[in-house]
Design goal:
This protein has about 300 residues and is of the alpha/beta class. It has one domain: Rossmann fold, CATH 3.40.50.720. Helix content is about 45%, strand content about 15%. The protein contains 10 helices and 8 strands. The protein has an 8-stranded mixed beta sheet with strand order 3-2-1-4-5-6-7-8, with helices on both faces. About 50% of the residues are buried.
Amino acid sequence: MRMLLVLFGLSALLASIPAHAQEHESSISYDGKTVLVTGSTDGLGRELALALAADGAHVIVHGRNVERGEAVVDEITQAGKGSAKFIAADFSSLQAVRDFADNVARDYPRLDLLVNNAGIAFHQAPQRSANADGHELQFVVNYLAGWILVNRLKQNLQAAAPSRIINVASGSADAIDFDDVMLERPGAHHRGYGQSKLSQVMMTIEIAPAFAEDGITMVSLHPATLMDTTMVKGIGIPARTTVAEGRDHVMGLIAAPTLQPGAFYVDGQVATPNDPQATDAEARARLVALSAELTGVPLAP
């Protein structure tokens, strides 16, 4: 019993140490490993792809724009460290995400790291945005795409275990109205970004324990507040931090020797999500069931 208490205390201590403070404890190297960073042709994703390649990783670069994707691959190739391949996919289409996941699963039997970074945001938009299926667009791109990838690629991640999933969420959070998830009621579309980001956090809390049993550590995080990305500039809000700051925070977790499965991280430390719905087990289970229904992709066994 005393030994169990000691081990529990050590685990709690490690979880409380900021990821950047754990670097000297032998950070994880991705030299020779395979990583997938979604939304990696611009902004934070691009910086993460370059940083991982500089560590020696083979990076699967993802985005919609082929020219920008190939430019990232060329930059990595010219740097002479690591390697990269670009795979295009428009995450506004759930079928495109499923096809993308199947292509990655086929071509890369072992996947050491998945970073769900792709995202969009609409600030003070005059009306709701939807994809061809009528689904609210931020919910699709920011959340449902990640649901598909973690479940369709679980076997590949398990083959490379110990492996990791990093869900790039946000401090922004709006509770899910399960009677209007697609935000069709008047004025509801303003909650779209916060709802999609809270969904990432809730999914992570709910399914991370099962993934951990197979050697896959899944966490979510807030990278930095209003980084100077194309997305932030596009919504007309003044930037408060830099992409470099966000990159360093995310890379700190990617390479940290110890992470707490299911946790939400801010500045390298475990934090409390910004909406109490995240702690509602019934709501999380309802979200999981809804995600499987909407995407046609069940929770991976």
